[in-house]
Please model this.
Amino acid sequence: MAATTDRPAIVACPACGAKNRVPAAAAGRPRCARCHDDLPWVAEAGDGDFSSVVAQSPVPVLLDAWAPWCGPCRMVAPVVEQLAVDLAGRLKVVKLNVDEAVRVAGSLRVQSIPALFLLDQGEVVASTVGARPYPELRRWVDAELAGRGSVV
Model:
């Protein structure tokens, strides 16, 4: 489940299994209340909360621009969510439904979906279009973050 600004997600800690509330927007990284490991951070954003969820994120954001009717979007969704697990504490995944967030999708010039954007401090630093397998997306994210001095 992805968090929204009005409803935090309940996330089971991959390390200890404890259930934790993870808000869509926060000043720091989400950590497990029991074992203090970093938690996967998956949130939803729209036109009204994009700035607080994405632009003010303390870690780089992988933005997944998608739509419910898009088959390739449904194929890449588990890959993107696995990146959130594997890069917990270092990357935040945000889902943007382009049918509902028309203003943000327009400002990002989304023309094909799925479209993935890597944002650092609210600025788009890289983008790619289309469903990709996990190894390819992981290499892309790692290379882009390493090229900008972010720790991966």
Observations:
- The domain at 40-147 is CATH 3.40.30.10 (Glutaredoxin).
- The longest helix spans residues 71-86.
- The mean pLDDT is 92.
